[in-house]
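User: Predict DUF659 domain-containing protein's structure from this.
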Amino acid sequence: KNMAEAVWETLTLYGIHEKIFAFVMDNISNNDTMIKGIEHHCKKECIPFNARISHLWCMPHIVHLSAIKLLEAIGVISKNDAKKANGQTSNYQNAAMATLDRSYALRGPSHTG
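Assistant:
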């Protein structure tokens, strides 16, 4: 299953697929592909959504990339260190990419388990 399918399935499961306005994410190319897939699903259901104007980039990520590029350009860090800095993942990123437990939507907030 691709990312667009997984996101659309989750949006639909929670009943918010008709309420999306924009996505904030980094500028990696597979996010471009994903948001175009969301646009395709929206068009099939006559939901207004434009991938080009609804893809917002994460400002902290842009600042990080810019800072690394600047530090490399002025010789503070090496090209190799810049690659390492851009390739590192944080605990937040690892948690955000973990498999989702969607069972909460099915059982509702009043149930524990």
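Residues 1-57 form one domain.
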